[in-house]
Amino acid sequence: MQRSESTGKSPFELVTGHQPLTPNALAASYDGNSPAAYKTMKEWYEQADLARASLDKAAKKMKKWADKKRRHVEFDVGDKVMVKLLPQQFKTFRKVHKGLIRRYEGPFPVIGRVGKVSYRVELPPKLKIHPVFHMLQMQSELVFANPNSGDLKTGREKLVCKSPNLSMKKDITDLGDGSELVYCPRLFTEYKSWEYFNYLDKNISWTRPTIRVFGRQCLQPRDTCYIASKGLKDYSYSGYTPQAYCWDDFPPLKEILDEVQKAVPESQFNSLLLNRYKTGNDYASWHADNEKVYGPTPDIASISFGCERDFLLKKNGKTSNKSQVQKFKLMKSLKRKRGMSNGEVPYKTFKLKHGSLLMMRGNTQRDWVHSIPKRVGEKAAALSTRINLTFRLVL
Ligand SMILES: O=C(O)CCC(=O)C(=O)O
Ligand SMILES: [Mn+2]
Description:
This protein is of the alpha+beta class and 395 residues long. Helix content is 28%, strand content 26%. The protein has helices spanning 11-16, 23-29, 35-68, 87-93, 141-145, 164-167, 190-203, 252-263, 324-338, 364-367, 378-381; strands at residues 80-84, 104-114, 118-121, 132-134, 138-140, 171-176, 179-184, 210-213, 216-219, 223-228, 244-245, 271-277, 284-287, 300-306, 309-315, 347-352, 356-362, 368-372, 386-392. Helix 2 (23-29) crosses helix 3 (35-68).
């Protein structure tokens, strides 16, 4: 008989002290002399085993799917949260038609933790209900305000990441010939990333400058802002010299820079170019960050917040000074790795996640070009904003 997970016993066993003698239990101990009876019992026994194995498999499958949406969430005292109210609770708060009842109400500050999974919330006095909520009934104010992120399907938040840099996942991609990419999908927690996104979106002095592309003046297809440490040479690209703001003008940028430095202590940065892609129609065309001020092998750290966009890289096709034999070997191994036919250009695509860090290193700016393409289709074009920060070192 099936045993309960909490008691480790079946109801029958709890009452009688032993498991019932069922036909399949007899099979193991059957010592009569009828082969047919033995065979029948053995078959029962095997059927039960098979059923147990199938149940185990189904339970594992269910857990796998449930875990996909499961996240560890925590709130701190002082965090503002939205809470889910029952319709009758909502009615005591606001007199509205039942069709207009909101799914979440708030934001209300968290005033304490109750056990492992519940929080006490400071509710307005006219809301006469018990102020303790299970975390499944809560959502952070920030996540609630930014429901468009692909990352936020479960809608809850504050991923616990006490020391992000120790547990940080890093994917290293060797592009060959001294070019390298390092990708950390989660440098910042989802919560912190939305805090930064909201701050940057509202406070940065964004401009959309006119730049020169192939001899023509055109509006840059994204907003931008430039930050530089004092005393650096002017920086220009595509005939445009941006005004340099100070780090102190936007203090959270220093915090972000500190986290980037902790994640990649071997690199140094003294300037930052910010980009804001307001919709999927904004883009960055193919280019390399190979301006002379950065030297021949710049390390560039790129942080993304908000809407997820594609980041593409392709070989720039220029000849470098290595021997033809080396180049032939490199192309051959690249083609083998990517299953490409002759004449195709090596390509790399990354989905730059909310709160991620992408490092471009070594010869990447010499041998490769990168871009953020437009999102195609009406819906894609209407996608929400992405903010990108590229930290650089002006020599
Ligand atoms: O938005 C991005 O991820 C890339 C921006 C970029 O390439 C640049 O600012 O040079
Ligand atoms: Mn670039």
